Hints:
By secondary structure, the protein is mainly alpha-helical. It has one domain (15-124). Helix content is 73%, strand content 0%. The protein is built from seven helices and no strands. The chain has helices at 2-9, 12-36, 52-69, 73-92, 99-102, 105-120, 127-132. The chain is globular. The termini are far apart. 26% of the residues are buried.
Amino acid sequence: MAAQQSRLSRYAPYMLGILRFITGLLFLEHGSSKLFGFPHSPMFDGLQIVSVFGIGGILELCGGILILLGAFTRIVAFVLAGEMAFAYWMFHFPQSPFPALNQGDAAILFCFIFLYLVFAGPGAFSLDGQRKA
């Protein structure tokens, strides 16, 4: 059991890097939907850049790209975790206290993945890692 755990542990930085990459990719998709209409969501038609959703879109697009690349990971993840906490309490929770009913599941998961990245760092395959080398 301990030997198997040790073998798996050596892959942890790579899985962290993959988690970071996929999270950034998913997150930037939310920003591109808001700012560029791709993928299209009618909810964001006519979105004003200087609005809560517009600023959120900018954070999601730019922050998603930086997270995907693993650049400035800890500080960007901290800001994005705050954005997701704000989004949950501002938009989802007032509908219902239950995430399954208020569609806040993604906001909660993004928030806690970003918080994890604040403490764990970027993992493998990151620009942050390249700068240290």
